[in-house]
Design a protein that fits this description.
five-stranded antiparallel beta sheet; 6 helices
Amino acid sequence: MLVWGGVLAAQAATTAEHPASRLEGVAFTHQDWDLACDNTRTCRAAGYQVDAEELPVSLLLTRAAGPGTPVQARVALGSYGDEAEAVSAPARGAGRLKLRVNGKGLGAMTWLDAQDSFSFNRAQMQAVLHALPRPNARIEFSHGHNVWRLSDRGAAAVLLKMDEFQGRIGTPGALARPGNRSEDLAFPPVLMPVVKAARVPEQPKGRTAEQVLGLSPKAQAALREALLKDVEDAEALSPESEEGQLSFEPLGGGKWLVGTLCWSGAYNRGSCVWVMNERPPHRPELVTDSASEFGNGMISASHKGRGLGDCWSHDEWTWDGHAFVHTSQSSTGQCKLVTPGGAWDLPTLVTRVVQP
């Protein structure tokens, strides 16, 4: 069951009661910049170096919705692999990394030890935000003879899209296209949805699907064939093989979760997962064809963008007693060799899951 809770502001509370508050997030990429705005209207823009020949670096800009909200920023230096780590490690610390914008030195950046990244002071932040949407912006971070250059390609388009999503275009607080419209016209934040997770029964120990559901091995093979018939690009794994078998877990209320491996590639694989009635007619409903793990009322899907593992996508679904609700969706940004596992968390869907 989806309910709306937690008060951010009086305006947000009013918005949350309206159907339009169930906002769809947005993801947008242009050249060397990404944008991810989630369903609370918080936006995150991430920029990177131009290509792999440059020292890897990324800037993350985060801004919540609402009039007058500030922009928060973090900078991460490349640490993927021994060579990149050897270059960036000496620069990571207080007073070490210097900022230069369009040739003007702006001093040392603030080191955030807990986040393993850097932030800007007020003057530095203003200079970066002023330069980014304009042509030929040169934003450089340096330590000794090493220089990390942030690309401006795509920044103007991404920041304009952020302004548009948050209703800031033409207001003094807009990043890409400011103007004289009232700052109060910026859209308010939307409340984060709250999903109440349902308690699921324990998996019957030592009992087969035939004993629990009355499904013989032959019936299970027939069910698997029927389930996969409508799944596009599902691989024809032998139902006798371990990977080709169905797995069953109780959800309660006469519902079961059933899953099987659907596809595999060089560095990713995905299982198809359905919810079905315990007794015929089973009426299976597909939740996803790309699950990485499932069980205990949760389904997750995590996949590499490429074999190097420097960029990922993540999704989660939560059982609420009636259906699996999509409760999380995010990526880690572009495959730019910034950090193992990806540089940032860029969500387009966020919820607060309340455990039973």
